[in-house]
Design a protein that fits this description.
alpha+beta; 15-stranded antiparallel sheet; 7 helices; elongated; DD_CATIP; cilium biogenesis/degradation
Length: about 325
């Protein structure tokens, strides 16, 4: 990972969009991945955002991953959210990891129905050399697809849903048919090993420019695939709409702006205490009278206040 060149990362900055289909070809949902340059705590990094939404057996489900990753694929912060909405109850899983003081802090919250369970673990960063998470895995595979080769017996470490460190390996290559065309696609097999359970295996296939054309978990009845080959122009300018509430960067900007406006409004109200008195008197009078035409009532109630301003201002306001 230390051999990654900035020019390679530049080629990874684009969006992918696939559809999720059943074994019979039924459309079940959508899958998208975007990679872009960003900053976190004044540190340049890569922002990876992936989102899967759909339904299985008519039950809505989805997964969202948002990760801030350094240019050598070290995870600074990552948020993982997975949900399944079942009739009468649901399943919700959230994982959040962040680097702090030489440690990787990992917080997990699982909610089944109304019952939530929480776990918090930490690992020293010295124990996580070669860590590949769900977010950094998406960027790593794009890089390997652009190189169209991987070192023999390449392996990394990952953290499973039990918050234990496990091994993950990559290998493979294959030709695929996309739409009516036969294209050479670089295939990657990702295996998440486990001591207690069977390994989990993913097959992902990429075009020579790094675009994802197929993604499937072995044993799953669904496949994520590209419906047709995009033109070069489409690949360069493809845009994927994000759910801003689930994007850490966009949500952070929203919350900052929200707090800024609240502070500004509170300051104005402190400077003009008569506002609260005026509104309180109006509402009390309104509820006592209970008029049918609230707008007409408000106009007549506030009309005497207009006499406190010069006539030209009243005319100007009425013409707006």
């Amino acid at each position: 990972m230390s051999s990654i060149d900035p020019a390679e990362l530049q080629k990874c900055v684009f969006a992918d969009s696939l559809v999720t289909v059943s074994e019979g070809g039924r459309h079940l949902g959508n899958f998208s991945v975007t990679v872009e340059f960003a900053h976190r705590v004044q540190q340049p990094c890569m922002l990876v955002h992936a989102q899967s939404q759909g339904a299985i057996d008519d039950s809505p489900c989805g997964t969202t991953v948002t990760a801030y990753i350094t240019t050598d694929l070290e995870v600074l912060e990552e948020d993982y959210h997975e949900y399944v909405k079942l009739e009468g109850h649901g399943l919700d899983k959230r994982f959040h990891m962040v680097q702090r003081d030489g440690q990787m802090l990992i917080n997990k919250v699982t909610t089944v129905g109304e019952v939530s369970n929480k776990w918090l673990v930490s690992y020293p960063m010295s124990d996580l050399k070669g860590l590949i998470t769900e977010g950094s895995n998406l960027l790593l595979m794009r890089l390997m697809a652009l190189r169209t080769k991987i070192p023999e017996h390449m392996s990394f470490i990952s953290i499973n849903q039990d918050l234990n460190i496990i091994c993950t390996t990559f290998l493979g290559m294959k030709q695929l048919e996309v739409g009516a065309e036969s294209v050479e696609a670089f295939g990657l097999e990702r295996i998440l090993h486990s001591v207690a359970d069977s390994p989990t295996t993913w097959h992902c296939y990429f075009l020579s420019d790094g675009h994802l054309v197929r993604r499937v978990q072995l044993g799953s009845p669904t496949t994520m695939r590209l419906q047709q080959l995009p033109s070069k122009q489409d690949r360069e300018f493809d845009k994927i709409s994000l759910v801003w509430e689930e994007d850490m960067q966009m949500r952070s900007k929203f919350l900052d702006r929200k707090e800024e406006l609240k502070a500004d409004h509170a300051s104005y109200l402190r400077q003009h205490p008569e506002i609260r008195t005026l509104i309180s008197d109006f509402l009390q009078f309104l509820l006592l009278r209970k008029p049918d035409d609230v707008f007409q009532f408000a106009q007549e109630y506030f009309l005497p206040f207009a006499s406190r301003h010069p006539p030209e201002l009243i005319l100007k306001a009425s013409s707006v």
